[in-house]
Specification:
The chain is an alpha/beta fold. It has helices at 7-21, 30-44, 49-58, 60-70, 81-95, 112-123, 139-147, 155-164, 222-235; strands at residues 101-106, 130-136, 149-151, 175-178, 181-184, 192-196, 208-213, 236-244, 259-263, 268-271. Pfam families: CheR (PF01739), CheR_N (PF03705).
């Protein structure tokens, strides 16, 4: 099988997907998107983009697998613990001033980040008056997120992350070991709305005091990054907070002056205009 994908075939495939399914991958960072497509072709033993297009257009189940390949699902609970520590130290006290706290976790993948935020809010006494909107393009990931069952061997890493993030209790109290999985307390997701949302094509759907979108826009080209940051700017309340991944920045965004840096190192910003 050829390990290349010429420009015409690449663009034609993405346009066909956009036309057929409404999923727009045309502004994903090209090197990453090409790698993912070629990886999928290798797994499925498909030799050409034309053949791949034919399969995707005629089999929705295969297309769902393709979306899973194109979306990023690598995550863990309290990933980058100092980010969560900064949220506790610099953001939580401000969130506490709102009678109802609305939080959008965009690109939530399989949900580890959602449960991490829920635990943090619970420990700070804010979970009962918070509504978390957890969205992702990947329906399979959302299904796993709803279940709240994660690999038991990962709990060692998650516990270390939790402690470094300033956890105030025993992490093991939040889950029950079940076979080879850890089932997280259902009370953590009572105020969570899991829903599909495509950052490339879908618009704003609420006003939020905090938006977290970490390690997602790094896979987009500059044009789509600008579009997504604009979406977040529209969706944030006055003086709302935005959290990005450690390799992401607002530096080149058209809204760079609309945000103040709360923690430059942890990429936490506040909307100021």
């Amino acid at each position: 099988m050829s390990n290349t994908l010429d420009d015409k075939a690449y663009k034609g495939l993405l346009e066909a997907i956009r036309f057929m399914y409404g999923y727009d991958f045309t502004e994903y960072a090209e090197p990453s998107a090409r790698r993912r497509i070629l990886h999928f072709m290798e797994i499925k033993r498909i030799d050409t983009a034309t053949e791949l297009g034919r399969v995707l257009m005629n089999d929705e189940h295969v297309f769902e697998e393709f979306v899973q390949t194109m979306s990023v699902t690598v995550t863990e609970m309290f990933r980058d613990p100092l980010f969560y520590k900064a949220l506790r130290d610099a953001v939580v006290s401000q969130l506490a001033t709102y009678p109802v706290i609305k939080i959008w976790i965009a690109g939530c993948a399989t949900g580890q980040e959602v449960y991490s935020i829920a635990i943090l809010l619970k420990e700070e006494g804010l979970l009962d008056r918070s509504i978390l909107y957890a969205t992702d393009i990947n329906q399979h990931s959302l299904q796993l997120a709803r279940q709240g069952i994660f690999a038991l061997p990962a709990m060692k890493t998650y516990t270390q992350n939790y402690l470094q993030a300033g956890g105030k209790g025993a992490f093991s109290e939040y889950y029950t070991a079940k076979h080879d999985g850890a089932l997280f307390d259902r009370s953590l997701c009572e105020n969570v709305v899991f829903s599909p949302h495509n950052l490339a094509t879908d618009g704003s759907f609420n006003e939020f005091q905090l938006i977290i979108c970490r390690n997602v826009i790094m896979y987009f080209n500059q044009s789509l990054q600008n579009k997504v940051v604009d979406l977040f700017h529209q969706s944030l309340s006055a003086f709302g907070f935005l959290g990005l991944g450690d390799k992401e920045s607002l530096m080149f965004s058209q809204h760079s002056r609309s945000f103040a840096e709360i923690s430059l190192k942890q990429k936490i910003y506040r909307k100021v205009k």
